[in-house]
Amino acid sequence: MNDLIDAVGRGDIRAIARAISLVENGDPAAVPLLRALFPRAGAAYLLGITGPPGGGKSTLVDRLIAHYRGQGLRVGVIAVDPSSPFSGGAILGDRVRMQKHATDPGVFIRSMGSRGHLGGLAAAAADAATVLDAAGYDRVIFETVGIGQSEVEVAAQVDTTMLVTVPGLGDDVQVLKAGTMEIADIFAVNKADREGVEKCVIEIEQLLSVREMDETTWLPPIVQLVARDGTGVDGLADAVERHRAWLGRNGRRESKREQRLRQQVRAIITGRLGEWAQAKLTNDLEARENLVDLYQRKTDPHTVAAAVLLELGIE
Ligand SMILES: Nc1nc2c(ncn2[C@@H]2O[C@H](COP(=O)(O)OP(=O)(O)OP(=O)(O)O)[C@@H](O)[C@H]2O)c(=O)[nH]1
Ligand SMILES: [Mg+2]
Predict the structure, then answer these.
(1) How far is the CA of 111 from the centre of ligand 2 (A)?
(2) Is 225 within a domain?
(3) Which of the ligands is closest to the CA of residue 164?
(4) What distance in Å separates the CA atoms of residue 264 and residue 261, rounded to the nearest whole number?
(5) How far is the CA of 298 from the centre of ligand 2 (A)?
(6) What is the rounded CA–CA span in Å between residue 153 and residue 302?
(7) Is the separation of the CB atoms in 116 and 122 below 8 Å?
(8) Among 45-54, 148-157, 289-298, which stretch is predicted with the lowest mean pLDDT?
C-alpha cells in the first residue's frame, strides 16, 4: 500500500491506473489510499465537459489536451462511463480519438464507472480526481454525457463546467433543460461549421436572459467552435481562464471547493447508511419481524423505517 501511495505521488502511470480501479470497484483498499493521497491533492484545476452524445466532447477534450500540453501543463482525463449498455462504443471512440496523446507521459486518459463505489458515480469521480490531483496533474478533465442526473452531478463537482451543444439537434436546447443549464459556466457551441449556429447561440442567450443578474454574477460566455479542426479552442480556453480568475476573487473558488468537499462527505455517509440499512433489514430479527407485519399491511413503511432509524438516534 505504501508503495502504491508513493508511486501515485511520483506520477507513475500504472500506479495511477491501479488506484483508480480500486476507487471505481469500491475496493476497501481505496479508503486508506485516498486518505493518504488527500493531503497531497488540492492543486489541480478541475474541468467538467458535458453535453449530448456525439456533440464532439471527446474531440474537444483532445484539443484541450493539446492546448494545455503546449503550456507545459499535465492533463488527466476521465471519461465517465455511467455503465450504460450504450457507452461501450463511445468509450472505444474516445480511446481512438485521444490516442495521439497515449504515449505522452504528461497525459493520463481513461474511462471509469462506479461499479462498486457506494457513493455512486459523482463520488467515484471525486475520488478519482483526488488520485490524479495527488499525482500532480495540473488540469483534470471529466467528460460526461449530459443526459442523466448522475452525470450532471459529476459535472457539478468541478471548478469550471462546460456544456457542449451543437446546432441542428432539432430542439437545439433540449439538452439544456434537463438541469444542465444551471450548472454551465461556459457554453461551447460546437460544430460551428454546420448550419444553424446563430440560432443555437440565440436560443442559449434567450435562456440566459431570464436569469437574475447583478455585477457579481458570472455571465456564462457562449463560445463557438469547430473542435474537429481546432477553430475556437483557444477562445474556449480563454473563457476557462476568465472563469478561473473570476472564481479566484472574493473566495468563490474556496467556497465552491468547500461545498464540493461537504458533498463528498455527504455521499460517503449516504452510501454507508444505505449499506447499513440494507444489512439491518436482512439480518436484524426485529426489523425482519417488522417487515413481515409490513407485508401483511399491519404496519407501514414509515413506521418500519422510523424503528430502524431510532437506533441511530434519528427520530
Ligand atoms: N462537423 C463537425 N463534426 C465534429 C466536430 N467536432 C466533432 N465532430 C464529429 O462528431 C462526432 C462525435 O465526436 P465525439 O468527439 O466522439 O463526440 P462525443 O460528444 O465525445 O461523443 P460521445 O462520447 O459518444 O457522447 C465525430 O465524428 C467527430 O469527428 C466539429 O466541430 N464539426
Ligand atoms: Mg466522447
Answers:
(1) 10
(2) yes
(3) 1
(4) 5
(5) 51
(6) 28
(7) no
(8) 148-157
